[in-house]
Amino acid sequence: MDEHLNITIDPACLQDPPLAIDVIKQLDVFDFCLYLMLTFMACVSLLLYLEQCAYIYKNMPYPKKTTLMWISGAAPVIATMSCFGMWIPKAVMITDMTSNCYFAVVVYKVLVLMIEELGGTNNFLQRFSTETFRVNTGPCCCCCVCLPRVHMSRRLLFFLKLGALQYAILKTVLSILSIVLWTNGNFDLSDLEITGTAIWINPFIGILTIISLWPVAIIFMNVNSHLRSINLVPKYAIYQLILVLSQLQTSIINILALNGTIACAPPFSSQARGSMLSQQMMIMEMFILTLINRRLYRRTYDALPSEEAHDNNHNALQTALVEHDV
């Protein structure tokens, strides 16, 4: 019995993440090649994004060009930050929060893009002022089928924008607060005690995330049929996939590391090794999504016809059919 209890734990498994130089020193040939390949992927993602920004700047009108630059930069920015976190494990918290803050802005920009593709706020309201929107969509109310449809108005559109914008603002503020507390030793993701700050801040951020995703889903579910010509559905799918990979996947890996499911591998503790695996997976995934985004965003689409033009064409077609019958 005593033999089973006398288990020795490597001191490195209880230490903080190693320094960058310590990581480099312990790399063997395979690890070094892996790190170089992942770094190459991150650099290519960033270069492709910069080239895409130049294309969008030259060929897209303002303000849509700014929105497209923000959205198409989600995968390259996350890949770049993950590369920094892979080489410098002690900076993982800062790189992760930088990626999350950037994506919080992207959530708002996706909503703005759908409105701009329909001609801006005024044209959007003119087009849908006589229509009702369904609000029983995910992630908040997908099961509430009894919710009534609501009429689109300037007031409702304002609250939808505000619901998405609050996440971009509050996420940034809470991230800065978390970093300040972390430098003072008061913020630790592994501290799950009720007196810890992480147990209060992270669930609150989760609630803000759900609230911000709901307005974007409402707009998408009600306008996607009008925007199929600009490949809105695959664009929205990529945005959702980046959300799952950067938020849910990372959270699952961190939970497994905290539970000790991911084994310690000196000089990495269990938590540091989980973060390292998360960064490596993120680089490969974001590299693939960058290539897909390039095909979706590095092109020009025909402008959508206005509501008046659509009505005029419909009336002209009806007149032509009547004359043909006569």
Task: Give a quick summary of the entry.
The chain is built from twelve helices and two strands, in the order αααααααββααααα. The protein has 326 residues and is mostly helical.
Overview of this protein structure:
With 326 residues, this protein is mainly alpha-helical. The protein has a single domain (20-300), classed as Rhopdopsin 7-helix transmembrane proteins, CATH 1.20.1070. The chain has helices spanning 2-5, 20-25, 29-59, 64-72, 74-87, 92-117, 121-128, 154-183, 198-223, 232-258, 270-297, 307-325; strands at residues 132-133, 150-151. It has a two-stranded antiparallel ribbon. Mean pLDDT is 83; it is low at 1-5 and 320-326.
**Spans with pLDDT under 50 lasting ≥5 residues?**
1-5, 320-326
Radius of gyration: 24 Å
* Major β-sheet profile: 2 strands, antiparallel
The overall pLDDT average reads 83
| 3D shape | globular
Helix content: 55-70%
Structural class: mainly alpha
Q: Tell me the quaternary state.
A: single chain
> What is the overall number of helices?
12
User: Terminal Cα separation, in Å?
Assistant: 100 Å
Instruction: Just give the CATH class.
Output: Mainly Alpha
Compressed to H and E, one letter per element, the order equals HHHHHHHEEHHHHH
Number of strands: 2
Beta-strand content estimate? under 5%
Number of individual domains: 1
**In what order do the strands lie side by side in the largest sheet?**
1-2
User: If you consult CATH, what is the topology?
Assistant: Rhopdopsin 7-helix transmembrane proteins
The CATH architecture is Up-down Bundle
